[in-house]
Design a protein that fits this description.
The structure holds 2 protein chains of 2 kinds.
Chain A: H1 2-13, H2 15-24, E1 27-28, H3 38-59, H4 67-76, H5 81-109, H6 117-139, H7 144-157, H8 164-172, H9 179-211, E2 240-241, H10 242-267, H11 294-305, H12 309-324, H13 326-329, H14 341-362
Antiparallel strand pairs in A: 1-2
Helix pairs in contact in A: 3-5, 3-10, 4-5, 5-6, 5-10, 6-7, 6-9, 7-8, 11-12, 11-14
Chain B: H1 2-19, H2 24-29, H3 39-43, H4 45-50, H5 57-67, H6 70-73, H7 78-82, H8 108-112, H9 117-125, H10 127-133, H11 140-144, H12 159-162, H13 169-197, H14 203-220, H15 225-282
The chains are: A mainly alpha, B mainly alpha.
Chain lengths: 363, 283
């Protein structure tokens, strides 16, 4: 029966040819380490978010009077609702972490260099989209944690000169976080952001297919053996086929991703559900210790430290722009960070500062 | 790279003057102050004046005591009991706005009874209430204090407090009658706290226990041991229902943990299979 179905499909779309050209003939460098699979892990993480998100969408009510209750119903009354909700919640944090690690690895490996500038930029935009996903998703349960964290983050924008107030008002739909904000964030979270993310993801994957996988910098000291004058894909004739070599490696990392997720669900299920997360939002009662989620802690703490808030916010946006357009600033051919002491130190200092600010912001 | 340095520098220089002096007052407040709200308290002119240095020490003490009370944490402010306009200094002590300063002893039950309706009713029907009307009995403040009101429990019935007016014996019998139900309520309260730290919303259980607790303590104010004993079974049944629900939630949490552990082991095993598969492929 299965053979007949396969033959039926084969006759019509040439499945074998598609698998051979798309997966077996597409080769990856021989000495890839597991960090190369982080992009694949992020892609899987997004798929998990999509599936669990659709499930939550069936029961969630985007209304300030019902949102908290509907999330509570998902957690207590819907069969296995707790699993989908907690997978979505823990998954959002793990996805952000995986994406951050992916970006770090690409940066350290110098894989953003010519001809992969567009791959970096699309990845950067996807990272911003993920942060926007997190920001908008944080408010949806309509609890104290989400309500006040959204208040803090949206107020951060108001410090920007001229456009800040307008932007924050547009985001919130008024001076305060309200029902309108919930509706806007819901629309962004379930409709607009997935569209943006998937569009950029397709483009990102297309670029990877067109340029091929980059070799580890230790193997190749300069970007190409000869100058890049026209389009040329890195074929890696001495490498291994994408399937099964890379796919097995990636599948292992995906299993590890789920292992971490279910470890958190098993032993620290309440780690993302503090007291304020199980208290309905109350615009008149500010919780004692309110702060944004961990991925926003570094910019939040930096803004607290810089006395002039507008200057601080401008500085942060400037840094973000430099980060997004980094391949256009760093145009040198040397990819190996070990041979670039200045870049190495810039990276170490930036990374440690981010870490320090995140921890500082937490306590 | 160098050609990008100038545009970046220009952009940065633009940002600096444009941001200089921008909404300074707001900036000073923004993020430099705790987000936690004491604003409602500061809004009250009662608190403002009573915190001033020129105020008599015993008047000033009132604010400090209230800030440690259950009323403070429940957002019950000065005007909730004493009336007046908490936003307007001129009308803050206006009798037109219902201001009552220090109430007379006989007026105290009515003042507290604005919120604690059931308790006032039972109290007025009790020996304590009747004695107050005759001018000798205790009012609410006698046992609970005035401004530093704490969450009451069974320990409020004690030798030191009760023997100020009468012998402790009768009070002790009442305490014994209350003990089982009070103990059960305390245990359930502890279970609810555990559930909350496990990330479970316990709004319904909290409401149930609050309602039972209020009803039970209302009953206590009759200071009639016979009534308390007669109705203890009824309260035990009600508490049993809440207890059952809490037990089910704990069981559900246990199931969730086991199920997650199962999935964790499943993916752990899959990882091992994939490692073996990748090694055999390489060989």
């Amino acid at each position: 029966m299965l053979t007949r179905i396969r033959d039926w499909i084969e006759t019509r779309i040439g499945l074998n040819d598609l698998i051979n050209t798309g997966l077996r003939d597409f080769r990856v460098p021989a000495n890839l380490n597991i960090f190369y699979t982080l992009g694949f892990v992020t892609l899987t993480a997004y798929t998990v978010q999509l599936i669990t998100g659709v499930f939550l969408l069936i029961y969630y009510i985007p209304h300030s009077g019902h949102a908290f209750g509907s999330v509570n119903d998902i957690m207590t009354r819907v069969p296995y609702g707790w699993l989908f909700r907690q997978m979505h919640q823990v998954g959002s944090n793990l996805m952000t972490a995986a994406l951050l690690l992916h970006l770090l690895f690409i940066f350290v490996g110098g894989s953003y260099k010519k001809p992969r500038e567009m791959t970096w930029v699309t990845g950067g935009v996807m990272f911003l989209a993920v942060l926007a996903f997190c920001l908008t998703g944080y408010l949806l349960p309509w609890n104290q944690l989400g309500y006040w964290a959204t208040t803090v983050v949206t107020t951060m924008f108001t410090t920007l000169p001229y456009i800040g107030e307008v932007f924050a008002q547009m985001l919130r739909g008024g001076n305060h976080v309200s029902e309108i904000t919930l509706n806007r964030f819901f629309a962004l979270h379930v409709a607009l952001l997935p569209l943006i993310f998937i569009t950029f993801m397709i483009f990102h994957l297309f670029l990877i297919r067109r340029t091929g996988f980059s070799k580890p910098p230790s193997v190749q000291s300069v970007i190409e053996d000869r100058a890049l004058t026209g389009y040329r894909r890195e074929h890696h004739p001495d490498g291994y086929p994408f399937y099964p070599y890379f796919v097995i490696k990636a599948a292992f990392m995906v299993c590890l991703y789920f292992l971490v997720m279910f470890f958190i669900l098993s032993f620290f299920p309440a780690s993302l559900l503090p007291e304020d997360a199980i208290t309905p939002a109350d615009p008149l009662k500010t919780p004692a210790m309110i702060r944004p989620a961990w991925y926003f802690l570094a910019p939040y703490q930096m803004l607290k430290l810089i006395p002039n808030k507008a200057l601080g916010m401008t500085f942060e946006l400037l840094m973000l722009s430099v980060f997004l357009l980094w391949p256009f600033f760093d145009t040198g051919e040397e990819r190996n960070i070990l041979k670039r002491p200045l870049l190495r130190w810039v990276f170490i200092v930036s990374f440690l500062s981010w870490l320090l600010l995140t921890v500082w912001g937490r306590y | 790279m160098k050609k990008y340095v100038w545009p970046v520098l220009i952009l940065f220089l633009y940002a600096s003057p444009s941001s200089g002096g921008y909404r300074e007052t707001f900036q000073k407040e923004f993020l430099s102050q705790p987000w936690a709200g004491e604003e409602r308290i500061e809004e009250s002119v009662c608190v403002e004046c009573h915190s001033m240095e020129i105020m008599r020490p015993d008047f000033r003490k009132v604010v400090d005591e209230w800030k440690k009370s259950l009323h403070y944490y429940s957002s019950v402010s000065c005007h909730s009991c004493h009336g007046g306009d908490p936003k307007d200094p001129a009308l803050s002590m206006s009798h037109i706005r219902g201001f009552v300063g220090k109430p007379l002893k006989k007026e105290v039950p009515a003042l507290c009874g604005k919120c604690h309706v059931g308790i006032m009713k039972n109290y007025l029907e009790s020996g304590h209430g009747k004695a107050l009307l005759s001018g000798k009995g205790p009012d609410c403040v006698t046992c609970h204090g005035s401004h530093n009101i704490q969450k009451a429990n069974i320990d409020i019935i004690n030798d030191k407090l009760c023997s100020r007016c009468h012998s402790y014996e009768r009070a002790m019998i009442m305490k014994q009658a209350l003990f089982i139900t009070e103990k059960k309520m305390a245990d359930i309260g502890e279970d609810i706290r555990k559930l909350r730290t496990s990330g479970v919303f316990t709004g319904d259980e909290e409401k149930s226990i609050f309602s039972i607790q209020s009803e039970f303590r209302t009953l206590f104010h009759t200071i009639d041991v016979a009534i308390v004993k007669e109705r203890t079974d009824g309260f035990a049944n009600k508490l049993g229902l809440v207890e059952k629900k809490i037990k089910e939630t704990f069981e559900e949490l246990g199931f969730r943990r086991n199920f997650s552990v199962f999935l964790m082991i499943l993916f752990g095993a899959l990882s091992l299979v994939l490692i073996l598969l990748s090694r055999s492929g390489r060989d």
